[in-house]
Amino acid sequence: MSENKTEISVEALRAGDREEFSRLVDTYSGPIYRLALKMLGIPTDAEDVLQNTFLKAFQHLKEFEGRSSLSTWLYRIASNEALMLLRKHRPEITLSDAAPEDDDNSDYSPAQFTDWCCLPEDEFLSSESQAALDRAVQHLPETQRIVFVLRDIEGLSIQETSEALNLSETAVKTRLLRARLRLREELSTYYGERLDKRSKE
Amino acid sequence: MIEHEHSKCRSLLGSLSDFVDGTLGEELCEAIERHVAECQNCHVVVDTLRKTISLYHESAAEAGEVPVAVRERLFRTLNLDDYIRH
Ligand SMILES: [Zn+2]
Fold first, then answer.
1. Are B74 and A51 an interchain contact pair (Cβ–Cβ within 8 Å)?
2. Which of the residues A23, A25, A42 would you substitute to probe the B interface, choosing the one with the greatest number of B C-beta atoms within 10 Å?
3. Can you give the residue ranges of every domain in chain A?
């Protein structure tokens, strides 16, 4: 998210300036809501994450030390909230560097070699296509999903992503690569079928 | 595909993220470019990986607005009722 317009004043926030806090909310609620929606896939859950993120931000403003940017700090709170909600359903998820999925021998070698880049642009703009993109993200393991959402959807750098998730940059890069390769496979299936369909029409 | 090519494909896999992000060292970058020029499968993988990432970038550019009702409930939850009409 861009630190746009007039800078938000951290001093004013800490002094309890309500109007400044409302500016913070309006500046960052869009990206935070999007992150939550991509992570959880359900609007009511995303709204819970959105509300909890700003409630926590308000409670913990005093602890914000400015070592990371305000946006990275908010992303950190939001990521934790989103993962916490997911953990309610799947208690075994952890965010530590040694998450089991990083050690397993899953094969990430590409298996699909259809070149679907040549599809006409309107294929990629359809709502059906958008739904396929969202579905593919939902199929990622949670710890890969959060890395992908922060880096490739929200546009954080590797360093910012590692700060937001309290992970090493190496762990971020590993998960990002796996997430991207997995998504490429799933999109290859989807767009490969679209290609077939078009050639038969 | 001949065997030595296939092992090369695997060995380059770990560098693909940095390659498409443009953050890979020059030497490895050239090695991938050389390989991709000769290997049709890897060529497709690199192209579709780039396309995959750019599709998500584009989808993010379009979304990112909070529905009006969601914003209103958020402001009320935060006791910011006075600032809803901004
Ligand atoms: Zn190859």
1. yes
2. A25
3. 10-89, 100-200
Burial of A59 (0-12, 13-18, 19+ CB in 10 A): exposed
Q: Kindly report the CA angle at A55 between A151 and A36, in degrees rounded to 5?
A: 30
| Domain A100-200 top-level CATH class | mainly alpha
Q: From ligand 1's centre to the CA of A192, what distance in Å?
A: 20
The beta-carbon neighbor of A25 closest among B48, B78, B82 is B78
Instruction: Evaluate whether A165 touches A81 at the Cβ level (below 8 Å).
Output: no
Cβ pair B74:A183 closer than 8 A:
no
pLDDT (tens digit per residue) in B2-56: 444 578 888 889 999 999 999 999 999 999 999 999 999 999 999 999 999 999 9
Q: Does B56 touch chain A (CB under 8 A)?
A: yes
pTM as predicted = 0.90
pLDDT digits (tens, 9 = 90+) for A47-62: 999 999 999 999 999 8
Instruction: Enter the CATH code of domain A10-89.
Output: 1.10.1740.10
Distance CA A175, CA A166 (A): 14
A128 touches chain B (CB under 8 A): no
